[in-house]
Amino acid sequence: MKQVTPSSWNDIYFSSHDNLRLYARHYPASFTSPTHAVLCLPGLTRNVQDFHSLAVYLSTHSDMPRDVYCVDYRGRGRSQYDNDWRNYSPLKEAVDVIDLCTILGLHKVTVIGTSRGGILAMILACMRPTLLLAVVLNDIGPVIERDGLLRLRTYVGSTPTPKNWQEAAKLMKSLNAKQFPKLNERDWQDIARQLFLEDEGYPLTSYDADLAKTLSVIDFSQDVPTMWPQFKALAAFPLLTLRGELSDILSSDTLQKMQQEVPAMQSITVKDQGHAPLLQDGSLQSQIFDFINSSQGA
């Protein structure tokens, strides 16, 4: 995995419609080329650091580099926390993403959405289809498995802040080893650097603990709501779905049904990884680049 190099991006701060100070990153294309931008949307508790390696790869590609933008939702990363946890909703976050794209003049972007970010991509396909050119769903679909949601509920908002980076790596391994059995100790150290922010050399929790309240209100005695109509809206765009072989969020059965509903969808199963594939592997990055390149005709 590649370490973060701050010189490779520009910081963006912008105001939401309800006056929160939100954060995004811009990885400029290494040279001008006739390409459309990529917009990376992270998972529920994740942040822009998840996409660093992929963003560097896409923005510095020797043939067709692209501008890459990554977003911290409200209450995550370097974005301001919301006083009302009810605003940590996919709809509100989709509006924030639309606001950012409007401010930056972005349109016809390829969205790469990990988990929560893929849910936002489906919503954007309904709310603002002219914003999208192509979509990559990273381990998410219209059906979210109950077991995966229950696993998330056990630690979101209750994970302690580690005292140092070694402790952070051990914590990440204890929470995610079943999903990623082939990672080594250096990998876990790098993942800790992705999930936690840094404050004077020490790890800092990168999301508002009130996010847990959004999971606590789910009634697990009932079927989890599905998003088939929103998913079908993605049929209008080139679509690639990544699934972790060990995922407990996106099942193989759901992926098969997605293929039936959108026959043109491409899919990749990432072996020995669960929720959600890490996007650091060079071969996977190359496949994502090829998909973006072919879908944009550039």
Helices and strands in order, then pairings?
Elements lengths: L9 E6 L5 E7 L10 E4 L10 H8 L8 E5 L17 H15 L4 E6 L1 H12 L4 E7 L7 H10 L9 H12 L8 H11 L1 E3 L2 E3 L6 H6 L11 H5 L6 E6 L7 H10 L4 E5 L11 H15 L2
Parallel strand pairs: 3-4, 3-5, 5-6, 6-9, 9-10
Antiparallel strand pairs: 1-2, 2-4, 7-8
Helix pairs in contact: 2-3, 5-6
Brief descriptors of the model:
298 residues; alpha/beta; eight-stranded mixed sheet; 10 helices; disordered N terminus
Give a short synopsis of this structure:
By secondary structure, the chain is α/β, with parallel strands linked by helices.
Q: Structural class of the helices, strands and pairings?
A: alpha/beta
Arithmetic mean pLDDT: 95
> Considering DSSP H and I runs of 4 or more, what fraction of the residues is helical?
25-40%
Strand content: 15-25%
Could you describe the 3D structure shown?
By secondary structure, the chain is α/β, with parallel strands linked by helices. Helix content is 35%, strand content 17%. The protein contains ten helices and ten strands. The strands form two sheets. An eight-stranded mixed β-sheet has the order 1-2-4-3-5-6-9-10, with helices on both faces. Strand 3, helix 1 and strand 4 form a beta-alpha-beta unit. Helix 2 packs across helix 3 and helix 5 crosses helix 6. The longest helix is centred in the N-terminal third of the chain and has 15 residues. The N terminus is likely disordered.
